[in-house]
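User: Here's a chain of 343 residues. Predict its fold as tokens.
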Amino acid sequence: GGVGSHCATSIARSGAKKMRLIDFDRVTLSSLNRHAVATHADVGLSKVESMKRHFLEFVPHMEIDAVEGLFSQESAEEMLAGRPDFVIDCIDNVKTKIELITFCKRHELKVISSCGAGAKADPTRLQITDISVTREDELARAVRKGLRKFDIYKGVPVIYSTEESNRKLLPLKDHQEDNPKDYQTLANFRLRIIPVLGSMPALMGQAIAGYVLCNLADQPFEPRLEDPTRFSQYLKCQQLLWDAERKLYQSDPNGLDHDIEEIQLIVKHVFNWKSSLTGDRAADLVRWDPSKPANLDNLALMSSAEAKAHRKLKDLSTYTPEIISFVREQSIQILNIVKKIRP
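Assistant: Prediction complete.
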């Protein structure tokens, strides 16, 4: 597709000896705005065979294994046979993406994953980082949470965009509205599409190619995080909460209904780094009601001293009705703001 074709083309031109291309789809008119090599003559052809034919025109010596098929748990062993040096995930289906990454992690295969290129336009917001710290990306969020079910919380490099976007899925066409399932490429695959600016998949694909090529040449680079100082504060905020959940409440924080992206949002936009008790500067996220899990509707921000005293409480009777009411209002704000980022 868009990201994968640009990535594969760049790697092919850089001298790779052998490449395996895997895709079940075919070239369509709608994909020509973002595909690296496909032309009108390729419409209707297998994407992998089209890529192979074009590649052999400029790297005739290259070994290209074109596999037309859908990756799945059942096909994983065969499709990734031979222990590839690097697996590049450019899938846009959440379930399939999770299956591929999980297989690679369990079999110790190097993998890098492309997140959402749709609805993004600003090339300066692209980053390569670990999936555990991604934000403003619905695909990354869904995959990140899906991987947690397989005890994978980090260690998966991804490329994604930090750009905030309010662009939505395009509506169904008139002839698709009555029986939309009749027009799905595959069962359980999304029919409605999100608008894609052709430059974004190309940039993401080229960035992945650079990352992979440098790794293969034993010259890896360390991606630079956007605003690393501020981000480390959010990570510390999360860690303080998680440590308390484990030590004081014997609770597994991985079961909570939020992760680092939600923590960034609520600490910045709801708490504004101010104590829920006094309004003074604060950075310690705590479980508000000691009898309930530290989910989104049960959080408060406090100073270190306030948090230390709060964690010794058995209930909320120490606090005034005004403070209790204020924290309840913050909880409502938190739920409302998180609704906006969750699909």
